[in-house]
Known about the structure:
With 80 residues, the chain is mainly α. The protein contains three helices and no strands. Helix 1 (15-35) runs antiparallel to helix 2 (38-52).
Amino acid sequence: MGEPGLRIPSLAIKPAxxxxxxxxxxxxxxxxxxxxxxxxxxxxxxxxxxxxxxxxPAQLARAQKMARQCEVRRSFKNCD
Length: 80
């Protein structure tokens, strides 16, 4: 039990921010899945697919486009 008057800050993320996190997570897991091999590639694929369940079809298309654009740069800098 907590002490009376003890306040714990909320760890909730605003929905718009959460969508942005999911978009970037999908992009990075997608890139990782395409570059890694073996168990690491499978884990990246599993993570990407888990994140995809939280995206709408339009958001998923955007995340995939972000990954393609990032891959073209090849330096992977400024991919966010």
